Amino acid sequence: MKHILDELEQRRAGARLGGGVRRIDAQHTRGKLTARERIELLLDTGSFEEFDTFVEHRCTDFGMAKVKTPGDGVVIGWGTVNGRKVFVFAKDFTVFGGSLSEAHAAKITKIQDMALRTRAPIIGLFDAGGARIQEGVAALGGYGEVFKRNVLASGVIPQISVIMGPCAGGDVYSPAMTDFIFMVRDTSYMFVTGPEVVKTVTNETVTSEELGGAKVHTTRSSVADGAYENDVEALLQMRRLIDFLPANNQSGVPHWPSFDEAERLDASLDTLVPDNPNKPYDMKELIGKLTDEGDFFEIQQGFAANILTGFGRIEGRTVGFVANQPMVLAGVLDSDASRKAARFVRFCDAFEIPIVTLVDVPGFLPGTSQEYGGLIKHGAKLLFAYSQATVPLVTVITRKAFGGAYDVMASKHVGGDVNYAWPTAQIAVMGAKGAVEIIFRADIDDPEKIAERTKEYEQRFLSPFVAAERGYIDEVITPRSTRKRLARALSMLASKKVETPMKKHDNLPL
Ligand code: HXC
Predict the structure, then answer these.
(1) In what residue span(s) does the CoA carboxyltransferase C-terminal domain sit (predicted)?
(2) Which atom of ligand 1 is nearest to the CA of 23?
(3) 181 with 175: CB under 8 angstroms?
(4) Is residue 241 pLDDT above 90, yes or no?
């Protein structure tokens, strides 16, 4: 028996070396960890159970029969993050550049199937050169199998992609269909076609970083939801994210013990909104004061910063926060902000995560660039997402809620369950200046009259009370009590049930 066990250990040790010491060293020299080192950091110590360690490719073209590496460029298995089960696959760049062969794809689909069957999150760590060029169409078929499963699992289990090296060709579309993509700065990039092809086809000269680095994808394309300094930080942040996420769409959100009193009052919030309605304040400060221990995991921090999206906890349970940010473009809703928030709302709704919406929005952004860019369609995405959501929706209007943006931001009318306003709220069809200039156009040359009308408009409409008189606002609350009010509302709404008419699926404006 001993020699059999020795042989097993020898084979395992060989497989663990992947593409060999030289390529592992090269990986380290580039500031990257190997697939197995990454998995070690992501999962609880000693919890990783590997499958398919000895799988090899079956390609015989281009001399491939002679170069076989156990594992074939991807490490798969499952383990735990803070005791909760997750599935993982990690591309091994040291083996054929992590490229995808038929056998490699079958390993990924095996773990996708297991994750879906057992209803637990799946995390993919990417560091790869796309389709295994020697395999041709077998690799393309393999990608298709992976894509189909991404879609099948969408809305059932959380799917997370972390880009930790090159991610090109076929490798980009699987992450694109998962819930979140995170990147590592300076070592990762994502594109459908690389700089050489770009040069040939469009004659543009770009570097990989300029074409698809973390900066591009977190600030311009919005393909990525966040970026981290290095592999270690990225993986530790993924552990933090997993702690916020439910295992699946029916499990309910996790519950973590919190020492932060749910009914905690915060007097500093009474003076958060400045006297001058045109002066900004930091909505992130409010979120920090509402969540347990001030913990907030922000999604898409670098993109459309006029709206904030992310996860926090109240009474130990995950809540999705969507909040206008007056510090950036006065918190206006534009196409990017609408798309960003819509996707987040849909994620929360799919996974039964209650949503708290904090509103301070002067309206939709006017202008040709917005209209030509499809503001109507993009704004409709957010409106659609909120109107469709059946999770508990609690809304707090801190200051402005003007025009169509009032309706969109989880108003009572589109499904808000509990809608609060601070006494500083101004709920109206538009700001006083714009309103008076339209309805009292005849007096436009009389500054005194205009000033008087403006004051009149402000007193009548720029308060929460007109909306509260109609029941559109359930209660006007003191800012200091907001956390307590949210905690109580969320607890009351925990048993919310909504029946929606039977349909195959909706036709979300895309
Ligand atoms: C087979 C590959 C490979 C691939 C890399 N390698 N990509 N082997 N198929 N797709 C191998 C290299 O031969 C090399 O082997 C090792 O991996 C490391 O690659 P290097 O080029 O030395 O590394 P680096 O300089 O860091 O460049 C990484 C890279 C580059 C940018 C990813 O390798 C590259 O451009 N690869 C090709 C990318 C590509 O065109 N893929 C196909 C996309 S088409 P040795 O033995 O020297 O270590 C596609 C279609 C699918 O994916 C569409 C589905 C919808």
Answers:
(1) 264-504
(2) 48
(3) yes
(4) yes
| Protein residue with least CA distance to atom 46, ligand 1 | 96
- Residues that are catalytic: 169-170, 404-405
Question: What distance in angstroms lies between residue 293's CA and the mean position of ligand 1's atoms?
Answer: 45
Enumerate residues lining ligand 1, CB below 6 A.
23, 96-97, 99, 129-133, 140, 143, 166, 168-170, 173, 194
Contact by Cβ (8 Å): 179, 159:
yes
SS3 325: coil
Domains and CATH numbers, the chain: 2-244 (3.90.226.10), 267-425+463-493 (3.90.226.10)
Q: Which residue is listed with tokens 């059932």?
A: 156
Banded pLDDT at 62 (limits 50, 70, 90): confident
Nearest CA to ligand 1 atom 49: 169
Is the pLDDT score of 470 beyond 90?
A: yes
The SS3 assignment for 380 reads helix
Beta strands 74-81 and 49-51, pairing class:
antiparallel
Alpha helices in 63-161 (DSSP H): 102-118, 137-153
Beta bridge partners of residue 402, listed in sequence order:
428
- Judge whether residue 443 has pLDDT over 90: no
pTM tops 0.80, yes or no = yes
The span from the CA of 247 to the CA of 180, in Å, is 15
